[in-house]
From TrEMBL:
This is 16S rRNA (Cytosine967-C5)-methyltransferase. The lineage of its organism: Bacteria, Pseudomonadati, Pseudomonadota, Alphaproteobacteria, Rhodobacterales. Keywords: Methyltransferase, RNA-binding, S-adenosyl-L-methionine, Transferase. GO terms for biological process: regulation of DNA-templated transcription; RNA methylation. The keyword S-adenosyl-L-methionine applies. It comes from Sulfitobacter noctilucicola. It comes from the Bacteria. InterPro entries: MeTrfase_RsmB-F_NOP2_cat, MeTrfase_RsmB-F_NOP2_dom, NusB-like_sf, NusB_RsmB_TIM44, RCMT, RsmB/NOL1/NOP2-like_CS, SAM-dependent_MTases_sf.
């Protein structure tokens, strides 16, 4: 096994140590903090993929490992064994995987005495793990999140969502112009909602049309809020909580005059880079939503939320979070709706959305906003779009999207979307 393979695996174990440690960190924070910066691009991608696949299969890996361990070893060795187990059960060559993981432990300052244990356990997994792997259930979410989701959607839907989380997500693109032309160029499938889907993508930056800015990466569900807002040419549209700009680009591509607002300076830099790459323009404001002034024809509010709809892409989330900060987010979402509403012209429309599976961040927000604002109604008519199943429409007139929808075409992120109309 090459030193390169060991490095990617060592970095995957490092990521898992941080995500599953006593002070859990999100993978996105670790990457933004430079955790993989010293690796080659290939190793970086490999380390991230290994860590993500291990998190997706964590429950299965632990079940298999339990049989061969009297008690759990220290976290780093647990994570070495977990990465090795997942690799072996995904078809990795036994000799290569076991050697790489044993080398990694042998080179560790403090844990090299555990290389014998690593070798013995992974050899047993190589012998009996792959056959047992597929018979195990799809890994369940941790209890703190599973409980509220089962309460909201029922046990069967929860199991289907967990199967979707385990399956992971394809690569979805939004085209700046002709979606069919992009689908042809990248060998993708055009979904009924207009997203281009690629099941086995290579490196994104080497794909046809990246350099020329013909498309950007955006989950199919995340592309729907702007379709529901239906931006018109020259409309004055406020895009709140805009970074890194997936929806800003959709709005600008439709010819709207967009003002994009986000309070995160680093994320706004990414938004500007994204706009530049695709050759689109928007006015940008780095500030708190609640400090925005003016009057707008239409508003998109993509509020900060638990992001529980994106677990199939961010398998670290259920482990790095515990729900303790969700109450603050829910309170903030209500404040953002109220301030945004004050910026909307009479007769205007506002789309509220969150990439959350929790009704408190979707259906309940709209129920409560309707009670606070007499001039607010929910416009359900705008949800009749190609690819939108009428069964996804909720009682209050919003749209509930879940990761277990479209199972045959690769699923979608969880989202809640509602279009609100202001009285004239
Ligand atoms: C769901 S993300 C937005 C994704 C974005 N709309 C897109 O399509 O690419 C939520 C955003 O809310 C921003 N945010 C959080 N609190 C904010 C605040 N008080 N004011 C403005 N933006 C805020 C975060 O920085 C984050 O970029």
């Amino acid at each position: 096994m090459s030193q390169t393979g060991v490095q990617a695996r060592r970095s995957a174990v490092y990521l898992l140590d941080q995500i599953l440690g006593e002070e859990p960190r999100l993978m996105s924070e670790l990457l933004a903090g430079g955790a993989l910066d010293k690796l080659s691009p290939d190793d970086r991608a490999r380390a991230q993929r290994l860590a993500t696949e291990t998190l997706r299969g964590l429950e299965r890996a632990d079940r298999l490992l339990q049989k061969h361990l009297k008690k759990p070893p220290v976290l780093t060795i647990q994570n070495v064994l977990r990465v090795g187990t997942v690799e072996l059960c995904h078809g990795g060559a036994a000799h290569g995987v076991v050697n790489a993981m044993v080398n990694l432990v042998a080179q560790h300052n403090k844990l090299s005495h555990l290389k014998g244990l690593t070798n013995a356990v992974l050899r047993k997994i190589a012998a009996d793990g792959p056959a047992a792997w597929d018979a195990l259930r799809a890994p369940r979410l941790p209890k703190w999140l599973r409980g509220p989701l089962v309460e909201a959607w029922g046990a069967d839907a929860m199991a289907a969502m967990e199967a979707a989380h385990f399956a992971g997500a394809p690569l979805d693109l939004t085209a700046k112009g002709d979606a069919q032309a992009v689908a042809d160029a990248v060998n993708g499938t055009l979904l009924p909602t207009g997203t281009i889907r690629i099941t086995n993508p290579g490196q994104v930056s080497t794909m046809a049309g990246f350099d020329t800015g013909d498309w950007w990466v955006q989950d199919a569900a995340a592309a729907i809020p702007v379709k529901i807002l239906a931006p018109q040419e020259s409309e004055n549209i406020l895009d709140l909580c805009a970074a890194p700009g997936g929806k800003t680009m959709q709005l600008a591509a439709a010819g709207a005059q967009v003002t994009a607002v986000d309070d995160s300076a680093p994320r706004m830099i990414r938004l500007k880079q994204n706009l530049e790459r695709v050759g689109l323009k928007a006015k940008t404001l780095t500030k708190d939503v609640r400090a925005v002034k003016g009057t707008f024809d239409a508003i998109l509010l993509d509020a900060p939320c638990s992001a529980t709809g994106t677990i199939r892409r961010h398998a670290d989330l259920p482990y790095a979070k515990d729900g303790s900060e969700f109450g603050d987010l829910i309170g903030m979402q209500g404040e953002f709706i109220d301030h945004a509403w004050s910026l909307l012209k009479p007769g205007g429309r506002m789309v509220f959305c969150t990439c959350s599976l929790l009704p408190d961040e979707g259906e309940v927000q709209i129920d409560e906003a309707l009670e606070r604002h007499e001039d607010m109604t929910v416009d359900q008519s705008v949800l009749s779009l190609p690819g939108i199943d009428p069964e996804w429409i909720t009682q209050e007139g919003g749209l509930r999207l879940r990761p277990d929808y479209w199972p045959e075409t690769g699923g979608m992120d969880g989202f809640y979307i509602a279009c609100l109309r202001k009285a004239d």
